[in-house]
């Protein structure tokens, strides 16, 4: 299955700790924050504060927009600037301090007992082809410019903050071919 998701398809939800809102881009199943195997979201963070806890889950967080933030993960501080990512346990106590104003982040939360995950952000100056093999592939255009992707011989136009979900279980070939210049494409891969 190949599903093209528009910004209007995303679901606005309250954070688990109630301190803000997220846009849920895609998830494995379910409607609440207690029952899912994986979940991809994007959130605007306008104030420093504590992260929600997700028992038994792993997180990958990336800064999409803004100056960045410092994450204090149980006493160890990590600075994340725009375009950088960090992986950490969802059950750790995490406090985020904004560096210089609000940020927008991209967040993958997944069950590491069921899935292995990888997240990369691609920005290249020349045309490339990338081959990916995974059970689920999530492509997210973080660039303000449109990107044309060639997937299994089919061209797809991906506008700003639009995404494509590829599910290998629905007989979609898991080879991803991208023609053209990467302008800020986030690729999330999930493997069982």
Automatic annotation (TrEMBL):
The cross-references to InterPro entries, in alphabetical order and at most eight, read: RmlC-like_jellyroll, RmlC_Cupin_sf, Uncharacterised_HutD/Ves
**Which first-to-last residue range defines the signal peptide?**
none
Read off the SUPFAM superfamilies from this record: RmlC-like cupins (SSF51182)
Output the superkingdom of the source species. Bacteria
Q: Name one Pfam family in it.
A: HutD
Which PANTHER family does this entry report, sorted A to Z?
PROTEIN VES (PTHR37943)
What's the protein called, per UniProt? Histidine uptake and utilization operon protein HutD
